[in-house]
Amino acid sequence: MSTNNLSYNDQGGSDSAVEVGQETTPTSSNAGAGFGLFSTNFKKNDDLKEMLESNKDSLKLDAMKRIIALIATGKNASELFPAVVKNVASKNIELKKLVYVYLVRYAEEQQDLALLSISTFQRALKDPNQLIRASALRVLSSIRVPIIVPIMMLAIKEAASDMSPYVRKTSAHAIQKLYSLDPDQKEHLIEVIDKLLKDKSTLVAGSVVMAFEEVCPDRIDLIHKNYRKLCNLLVDVEEWGQVVIITMLTRYARTQFTSPWKEDGLFDENSETAFYESDEKKTKNGDEKKSYMMDPDHRLLLRNTKPLLQSRNTAVVVSVAQLYWHLAPKHEVGVITKSLVRLLRSHREVQYVVLQNIATMSIQRKGMFEPYMKSFYVRSTDATHIKSLKLEILTSLANEANISTILREFQTYVKSQDKQFAAGTIQAIGRCATNISEVTDTCLQGLVLLLSNRDETVVAESVVVIKKLLQTQPTQHSDIIKHMAKLFDNIAVPMARASILWLMGEYCERVPQIAPDVLRKMAKSFTSEEDIVKLQTVNLAAKLYLTNSKQTKLLTQYILNLGKYDQNYDIRDRTRFIRQLIVPNEKSGALGKYARRILLAPKPAPVLESTYKDRDRYQLGTLSHTINTKASGYLELSDWPAVAPDQSVRNVEVIEPVMIHLYFYYPCPLITQSSSEAESDEEKSSSQSSEESDKSSSQSEKSSSESDSEQKKTTKKPPQKKTVKPTLRLNHTFFLVPVLLSVVPVSGYTVLSQSKCLSRSLFSLCILTPCPLSCAAALLQVSGPAFVPEKRHDLLHRMTGKGLSAQYQFPRQPCLYQPTMVSVQISLTNTTDHPLEQIHIGDRGPTGLDMHCFNTVECLLPEASVTVSLGVDFNDSTQAANFQLCTKEDQFSVSIQPAVGELFLPATMTEQDFRKEQGKLLGMNESSATITMAAENTTRQPISRQVATVANLGVVPSGQDNIHRFAGKTASSGAVVLVTVELRESSAALITINTEKSVMGPMLLRDLKRALTRA
Amino acid sequence: MIHSLFLVNSSGDIFLEKHWKSVVSRSVCDYFFEAQERASEPENVPPVIPTPHHYLISVLRHRIYFVAVIQSEVPPLFVIEFLHRVVDTFQDYFGVCTEAAIKDNVVVVYELLEEMLDNGFPLATESNILKELIKPPTILRTVVNTITGSTNVGEQLPTGQLSVVPWRRTGVKYTNNEAYFDVVEEIDAIIDKSGSTITAEIQGVIDACVKLTGMPDLTLSFMNPRLLDDVSFHPCVRFKRWEAERILSFIPPDGNFRLLSYHVSSQNLVAIPVYVKHNITFREGSSQGRFELTLGPKQTMGKGVEAVLVSSQLPRGVLNTNLNPTQGTYTFDPVTKLLSWDVGKINPQKLPSLKGSMSLQAGASKPDENPTINIQFKIQQSALSGLKVNRLDMYGEKYKPFKGIKYMTKAGKFQALLSN
């Protein structure tokens, strides 16, 4: 012991000596190692301090790197705090970052000094660069100093309404930090969470749900309104966020929807066969089950999570699996099997958790994993805990049909060199034997053979298992008991010895010759036995005394005497109890008469069941499930409500849509010249148009449009375009002939009739010039939309669509399918009382606009709605995309009419770049107008807001207060679009638009004029 | 979520710690060390260990334990997956993930960990974004840094995090635009004594190395996409296009990444590319045993089987072996009883075999364990499942990229059980 201590000290000493050697090299040191730890620390810090106070960044950086290395190895560097904090405002990014790391680590210990740094962060919170704002908020909120709670609160609130989604994401993280620092802020934080939950950005969603889970997981009411949005966003959220959202939605769904399992009760009873058939009968079942109708929101969740089973992130896959397990109708749970089995090829730790979950599932639903039984075969290279989990699963999967295969597999396991595993296999065989009565005898024979195995653990385990098996059918196995009695001398494992003794006692009447002899041997060796063996010896003695007292009376008394003076109090206790019970004397009283009945009562056979039997009380995939105890912060999964709470809480109130009328543009392809008359009409009222379309809706698209145009007054004839040569490059461009009788007073969606001629002529010009892709486009970086209008436009009225109503909106997200496309979201609603099937996009008509269709919506239940997204390449023109929206029975011609402002993607650029670009786009490419601004539109924010509403443009930081700049590029060709709003005296303003797209320029100008002049 | 991280080496020393919330004392690792002591093998340490106030979730890779400390309920796989992602990132940055590499680059490691988690919640785990934030150390850069005093931390702020394609950095430029795809399949199988297959499954991946300028949008189509019924994708792949058209459409990350992994399960018929013939006898009472092993190709689609390596754990009773390989070299370690035979290439005309005698411990009885042999091999230019890429198209950029595809089959956990 003392030598150990000494060597330990020695090592410590040499360690610190080495440290001194390393740390003091730069300065000449005369503080020897003899001064011990304190002086070296002092010395070392002095040196670092000096470096930090130098003027050179490189020295400071060196010092910081060494300090970080100290922190990383767990050494204390808190004394350097003042010297480090001074560098918090350094220009050098790496230095600054390292200072941040240091600050976050030690601020808690040095609260007063940490306050010195706060003002730097406050300043950075106002920086124009979103990444700097975000990182400032990140560090500020990580400083665990209670005094700054109000500052943090303010910063979080501000950041939550920041333009940049990245900053908003950071604020969601900060919420959790503030909450752990000061739980009293809960109410205020919930307000912020509520606000952020409404955020539409995929960046924010995961983080804010995380904050929700930490701060107020019980406020389910905050989720209602965001439920559908979260479901729809889920696929695009980053993987870590997906896990959190799915877990939260699982809990949510269990409180809001009724159980889909009630009708499925019969599947459980009929077990596998019903389960397999159910797949084929699925559709039929759906019709049969009138009494249970799945809430469309419930369905939405299941449908939107399913593709995530193919995520590369194992945590996502398992969270979807648990969602299906806890929420899906029983016959649909099968879809998760394959994905879970796939995960078994992943890292060892992943396998461990996945196997645990499968173990729990396989107890309730054998059928799910039975086809994959071979995936659970044990490999010699598996870790021990993986092996035992696989055994567990194989045992659960065993049934009459596959038991012979499994037992054959088990036979090889028993021979494994890993004896612990072999013992586990024997237990598993025992479980199979009890569960499946057909093989009990076979198993028993096999186990008896194992009794002659050379390995002690195998033999011992076999004995224990045989004991349990014999208990289940005690009638005829006296030879096995005799065989075991013979083995008794050679077995040393206490548990096995105890088991044999118990068997002897229990069935002593079957082996009357042998039992007393065994007791005799035990009496000899009693004192040297283990405690459990002693206890069983006492038991055996008592039982033999009762059945065969003639032979064993003296032996029993001898053993009871030995037990009386045993070291272990349990054994002394037991001996005393047994003596009173069996040896008749005057004090024993009434109980003695029943001794026989007490000791030799028929005992219920032990039930050999899985240790995973009760794990299903925990939500699958959780930590609590893994460790089989409730982890702190575990949120119970509630039972299904008997009656579903109000469904309408999830309805999002539609922001009163501005009435937009459909214009009929008749596009004529240049190549396939036709003399068809293109007419357009402006509808007087939506009701009128719907009536008209109603009549024609059963007809095909073409006839419908013809009939429409016939019904209406033909107003203008389109110009004959036969003159245009079909060799033009842009042979997919169409002429737009907007012919309007009057102008509907809605911003952004009308084409003034006056500008018609102009635009037409410019349009042809535009076609003749092959669009040069501006080299500047490469400079442009597309940024997120500044503002997403909530405006929805009618695509198909429910009257026209025979109950199918469709609305579309522009989410202003870059299109996923192709970068040149504009993404359009269509929400389909079924207003009928029967499900609509196979909603898809049919014939796209002769327009030939490049479109990316949504996947067919297989079934839309009554009152349900679904949002699908679509990509349309409008080729930078405002022509409508015409296509047919089809259901199984009907086809409806619809068209999407983009406002010019929706054809852009916002871009970020500096003011200089803006000027440079503007310089290139003068003359014909410039259009401008002077307007009188509405009174409230004279400051920056309203102007930005108005411009952003009209067009999807990004704000360019401007040095002058009276000039506001916006930039973007067109979606299809990537041409630059620059907008300048210059305020003049007395609310006059000059709007200038520079773009090489000379049709779009004037159109955008007109829209902007209207928006800015409007009160 | 994740509170702290401790890195523990194989001798049980904590050599790095990082805390994302308030500091957790490193004494919490004592519970881990206890479990480590109990475990017979390093792999047997349970991944999740509950302690009175914390929970320890650990992964073991490259002989380093990454021990995460958490305080409250969190899906364990979330933590495990993240830890593996950390290891992958280190490997990506330093080439190897060893204790020495981590200690040498402790500052970069710290910067990385700082960016990867915010308050215990993953922030940036995409290697492309991280590389924009913190440049990986290279020898050249280290030299330049020491001379000029410049830093590893990226000067510009990353934009990838803000875009809708967070996995790709912006402003990528290459003079040679190239895209390479490697289809690598690993076959796992257990072959029983008589040579019939107990289980066989194929685990395939498509690894890509894409070096393309700008924002290319790629589509990859297969000749036989029906094979891929069990797949997982890199987040860049558009699920919907896959479901509708069985086409992989994606904007690729820059550099190396795993596009997808797939699994051809044991239910499908899997061709076994090699067979093993063997004859091993131990005679009761005799101190000699005979050993004979022959390998041969089987269903290899005309491609040669290369880099064959056979290893087997012989029973404890075997003292030594005296074997003759017809090709390659063999070694037998009398201490670990590990026999390994480096065969090389299989020549179908002249099958490789290993014959000879084993000397057994005198008086020891016939070993009752089944020896198993593990076989490793490679087959170039062929994917065992028959998966074939049809074509690769690029949209969104104007240049013509150079495209390449390579197929390879490897043995994964390929075991044959021998009779005794």
TrEMBL record, chain A:
The keyword Heme is assigned to this record: no
GO biological process, one term: intracellular protein transport
Segments forming domain Beta-adaptin appendage C-terminal subdomain: 903-1013
Name of the protein in question: AP-3 complex subunit beta
SMART domains, per the entry: AP3B1_C, B2-adapt-app_C
InterPro entries the UniProt entry points to: AP3_beta, AP3B1/2_C, AP3B_C, AP_beta, ARM-like, ARM-type_fold, B-adaptin_app_sub_C, Clathrin/coatomer_adapt-like_N
PANTHER family assigned to the protein according to its UniProt record, in alphabetical order: ADAPTOR COMPLEX SUBUNIT BETA FAMILY MEMBER
Compositionally biased intervals (Low complexity): 686-702
Region (Disordered): 1-30, 676-723
Membrane topology: Peripheral membrane protein
SUPFAM superfamilies listed in its UniProt record: ARM repeat
Family listed: Belongs to the adaptor complexes large subunit family.
Functional summary from the UniProt entry: Subunit of non-clathrin- and clathrin-associated adaptor protein complex 3 (AP-3) that plays a role in protein sorting in the late-Golgi/trans-Golgi network (TGN) and/or endosomes. The AP complexes mediate both the recruitment of clathrin to membranes and the recognition of sorting signals within the cytosolic tails of transmembrane cargo molecules. AP-3 appears to be involved in the sorting of a subset of transmembrane proteins targeted to lysosomes and lysosome-related organelles.
Polar residues bias spans: 1-14
Automatic annotation (TrEMBL), chain B:
InterPro entries for this protein: Adaptor_comp_med_subunit, AP2_Mu_C_sf, AP_mu_sigma_su, Clathrin_mu, Clathrin_mu_CS, Longin-like_dom_sf, MHD
Record Gene3D superfamilies: 3.30.450.60, Mu homology domain, subdomain B
One of the GO biological process terms: vesicle-mediated transport
Localization annotation: Golgi apparatus; Cytoplasmic vesicle membrane
Keywords: Cytoplasmic vesicle, Golgi apparatus, Membrane, Protein transport, Transport
Family under the similarity heading: Belongs to the adaptor complexes medium subunit family.
Entry keyword annotation includes DNA-binding: no
Cellular component terms (Gene Ontology): clathrin adaptor complex; cytoplasmic vesicle membrane; Golgi apparatus
Any one Pfam family match given in the protein's UniProt record, by short name: Adap_comp_sub
Domain of life of the native organism: Eukaryota
Membrane-related topology note: Peripheral membrane protein
Keyword Iron: no
Domain MHD: 176-417
Entry protein name: AP-3 complex subunit mu-2
